[in-house]
């Protein structure tokens, strides 16, 4: 079962930035995942550390962003 928005928020906290929204009609594909809302988590130096992708209310995935720009899927510990 996929985590809910509330569960992801509880585990990761509030995103630093957001791109798109749950009601954004534009759908994008990034790293093989369809999304219309992206939660962006930045490190202290302003670089992107993690992104969470959503398509409407459906969880697309959480990805750790490496310094070279590559992404690694992460698992969340949600109930």
The span between the termini is 10 Å
Number of strands: 7
Walk across the major sheet and give the strand order.
1-4-5-6-7
Helix-strand makeup class: mainly beta
Q: Radius of gyration in whole Å, from Cα?
A: 12 Å
Q: What pattern of helices and strands is seen along the backbone? A: HEEEEEEE
The unreliable regions are none
Structural summary, described in words:
The protein has a single domain (5-74), classed as Nuclear Transport Factor 2, Chain: A, CATH 3.10.450. Helix content is 10%, strand content 46%. The protein contains one helix and seven strands; from the N terminus they run αβββββββ. 15% of the residues are buried. The mean pLDDT is 92.
Any chance you could write out the topology, listing elements then pairs?
Blueprint: H1 5-12, E1 17-20, E2 28-30, E3 33-35, E4 37-42, E5 48-55, E6 58-65, E7 71-74
Antiparallel strand pairs: 1-4, 2-3, 4-5, 5-6, 6-7
Short description:
The protein has 79 residues and is mainly β.
Name the descriptors.
about 80 residues; mainly beta; Nuclear Transport Factor 2, Chain: A; 5-stranded antiparallel sheet; two-stranded antiparallel sheet; 1 helix; 7 strands; about 10% helix; about 45% strand; globular
